[in-house]
Amino acid sequence: MAERTTPTRKIIHIDMDAFFASVEQRDNPQLRGKPVVVGGAPNSRSVVCAASYEARTFGIHSAMPCAHAYKLCPQALFVPPRMRHYQTVSQAMRAIFKRYTDLIEPLSLDEAYLDVTENKQNIPSATWVAEHIRNCIHNELQLTASAGVAPNKFIAKIASDINKPNGICVIPPEQIQTFLHDLPIRKIPGIGPVTEQHLQAHGITQVQDILAVPDNEHLAIFGKQTDYFIALAHGIDTRPVQAHRIRKSVGVEHTFAQDITTTEALTKRIHTLADELWQRLQRNTTTGLTLTVKIKYSNFKQITRSHTLKHESYTPELIHIQAIRLVNAERDDRLAIRLLGLSIHTLVPCTIQQETLSFE
């Protein structure tokens, strides 16, 4: 009997281009062609939710403090976020996706995975499906999207960033290893500055360098993530597109370049993390009932503490206030802090009226 083989999947990763900023430019002609920053006021402690491509040329990016963005580009136009409106636009975008497949895994308001191995239009080419979708988004929503087309989610997500904005990148199975060979490790989803720095210290700057590491050094360099790194270096990702994935929590954490030793510096970091956490919650149109703080000290001692609200869900102000309380209550001021994290659990739909990210 002939051996059965698993058919190659056709996965598309759609990523809207500067989504929040592009919606604002679409809706207000006076913003078109100009550096637009979606976020709080320049003199607030808020962070940038999104920056138009014109603003990005000045070095402005998401999660950057708005005050710093203003210093980089004083002529930038700061626009408050309209999360409910972005959600409406996102729903229209997903309605376009559903014309082609029901296997849709949203990652946020502005990006999603689609499995089009078998699609509703019976289009044989995943590349054609991606182009159809991009054309519909442009014609019906007056927005642009970039797409990555590949046999799995890992490659598709990387590919969608290659020809941004308003581009497409197709990586067929036979080209995966060539595509990955010279790819910088920072392009791998999930690798942040700290992990990148750790890998670079071991001479790993490109994906091909992962495969060159001797087997007896894997554990020392990659630790518990050894299997993950080796699989991705070979372009292997067996995760299916999950149409009904239930998210259990949303969180952010930072490992500091220099350990935090003062209350003033710690409070500033909490402000930044709380802003970033709220931004992520808004992108997923959720909030939650339980806030958890994570503290890792310079001696690598780690603690986590949580607080659950009984009669309401978290707002930006409550995240900020409760995070300060939890950190101050548990902090050992004899030790410097290496890492700080905030996360929200027991998620519920976001229904609050406030649409600003400022804690003033």
Rounded to the nearest angstrom, the radius of gyration is: 22 Å
How many structural domains? Answer: 3
Q: Using DSSP, what is the number of strands?
A: 12
Major sheet summary line: 5 strands, mixed
Structural class: alpha+beta
Q: For the record, what is the CATH homologous superfamily label of the largest domain?
A: Reverse transcriptase/Diguanylate cyclase domain
Along the chain, the helix and strand elements come as EHEEHHEHEEHEHEHHHHHEHEEHE
The portion of residues assigned to helices is 25-40%
Question: Can you walk through the features of this model?
Answer:
It contains 13 helices and 12 strands. The protein has helices at 19-27, 53-56, 66-72, 83-97, 126-141, 153-160, 176-181, 193-201, 207-211, 218-222, 226-233, 263-283, 316-330; strands spanning 11-16, 36-38, 50-51, 77-79, 104-108, 111-115, 145-150, 168-170, 249-260, 286-297, 302-308, 337-349. It has a 5-stranded mixed β-sheet with strand order 5-6-1-7-8. Strands 9-12-10-11 form a 4-stranded antiparallel β-sheet, with helices on one face. Helix 4 crosses helix 5 (126-141) and helix 12 (263-283) packs antiparallel against helix 13.
